[in-house]
Automatic annotation (TrEMBL):
Keyword line: Transferase
InterPro entries referenced in this protein's UniProt entry, alphabetically: CoA-transferase_III_domain, CoA-Trfase_fam_III, CoA-Trfase_III_dom3_sf, CoA-Trfase_III_dom_1_sf
Keyword Transferase: yes
Protein name: Crotonobetainyl-CoA:carnitine CoA-transferase CaiB-like acyl-CoA transferase
Keyword Transferase: yes
Domain of life: Bacteria
PANTHER family, alphabetized: BLL6097 PROTEIN (PTHR48207:SF4), SUCCINATE--HYDROXYMETHYLGLUTARATE COA-TRANSFERASE (PTHR48207)
Pfam families: CoA_transf_3
GO function terms (MF aspect): CoA-transferase activity
């Protein structure tokens, strides 16, 4: 299996964030996804792990001891420094590392970092330009602020789970991921302001707020329309799988021109004259009847044939891929997003490449995910510690 254009081994990245240094005290998915994107874009990310390693080292398929597929993906292009954060020496080391860092990022419950002496007020004394990103579950106020949060908890509280019928949790960590993306954008915005003003700041991102922001604006249509006529599409009814002879597809026929194109291609132009279907509002009002009318047309042909006809009629449509089919889909392969990487310990594995492409970025960085504490000596040496000091930290179970 060949390695595609997204995997070029390179010692340094010339990405847009080249020269930015990030101290990453995050764990699980939301924070690590944020810093993975920043690392892909060229930032130097020093991942602070507990002595036993990040939880995600054992989350998902384990390709080698302490190297899950999740960890391999979210920790690429990062350095690993293993520290016991409960120890005063570790806290002092992190403060020292922040002296020449651009970003410090953590995800923990409110007050945890303050108890370690690593809150914004403490760290800004060492670096006035530091961007301090704090990811929490619910924010720092409110009745649930001190509670632990995982993705399904946020799916429930944000209303996301209720959008499915029947109520259902999505089988994906979508709230973690939207939080990671939100945090990534917020960090880069704060970096830009720090560059312009010379001042750092604290950036607060909660999983709950990120999820609610993600659901805007269409999920809030029922609230916005309270007391008014429901003249908008119910996407739960409109966006549905359509069965074909050999699979399922999705198509969108919201606009009149899309519906007209479909009726002409499949020779059902009489539907254009039907008062139930002759306008978008009417089609929405009689959507179930329209589906019943079109179902037999699609069941007699293969997905490939139907898609060709829909595309010819300029109707948006796509197959419903399984994750296995994703790796062979021609459009997905053309995007370069499916990346086959070789890890020196875990071997070859499939990962998702960087989604954004920068024309000025000469090389897409790829450094394999590190072993636990792989870069501890390198990072501490660069911070000014000598061999005896590093040895003492290791001997006293402060560092690994």
């Amino acid at each position: 299996m060949s390695v595609n254009k997204h995997q070029k081994q390179c010692e340094t990245s010339k990405g847009p964030l080249s020269g930015i240094k990030i101290i990453d005290c995050t764990t699980v998915i939301a924070g690590p996804l944020c810093t993975q994107i920043l690392a892909d874009q060229g930032a130097e990310v020093i991942k602070i792990e507990p002595l036993e390693g990040d939880l995600i080292r054992n989350l998902g398929p384990i390709l080698a001891p302490g190297l899950s597929a999740t960890f391999l993906s979210l920790s690429r292009n990062k350095k690993s420094l293993a520290l016991d954060l409960s120890k005063r020496e570790s806290q002092e080391l992190i403060a020292k590392l922040c002296q020449d860092a651009d970003v410090f990022i953590c995800n923990s419950r409110p007050g945890v970092m303050a108890r370690h002496g690593l809150d914004f007020e403490a760290l800004k004394q060492h670096n006035a330009k530091l961007v301090y990103a704090a990811i929490t579950g619910f924010g720092d106020s409110g009745p649930m602020a001190e509670q632990r949060a995982y993705d399904p908890i946020i799916q429930a509280l944000s209303g996301m789970a209720s959008l499915q019928e029947p109520t259902q949790l999505l089988g994906q960590t979508i709230c973690d991921k939207t939080t990671g993306l939100t945090a990534c954008q917020a960090v880069t915005a704060a970096l830009l302001q720090a560059e312009r003003s010379g001042q750092g700041q604290q950036v607060e991102i909660s999983m709950l707020e990120a999820a609610i922001g993600f659901l805007a604006c269409d999920a809030f249509w029922p609230i916005a329309a309270a007391g008014r006529e429901l003249n908008y599409p119910d996407f739960k009814r409109v966006y549905i799988p359509w069965k074909t002879q050999d699979g399922e597809i999705v198509l969108v026929i919201l606009a009149d021109k899309e519906f007209a194109g479909l009726t002409e291609e499949f020779q059902v132009q009489h539907l254009l004259e039907d008062p139930r279907f002759n306008s978008m509002p009417n089609r929405f009002a009689h959507w179930d009847e329209l589906v019943d009318t079109l179902k037999p047309v699609f069941l007699t042909q293969s997905s490939e044939d139907i898609l060709k006809r829909l595309w010819r009629a300029d109707v948006p449509a796509a197959p419903i891929n399984t994750m296995e089919q994703l790796t062979t889909d021609k459009q997905v392969l053309a995007s370069g997003m499916i990346d086959y990487s070789e890890h020196s310990i875990a071997g070859q594995y499939t990962r998702v490449a960087m989604a954004a492409n920068f024309s000025l970025q000469d090389n897409i960085p790829y450094q394999e995910a590190p072993s636990l504490g792989q870069h501890s000596h390198e990072v501490l040496t660069h911070a000014g510690l000598d061999e005896d000091e590093i040895h003492s930290l290791i001997q006293n179970d402060i560092c690994r």
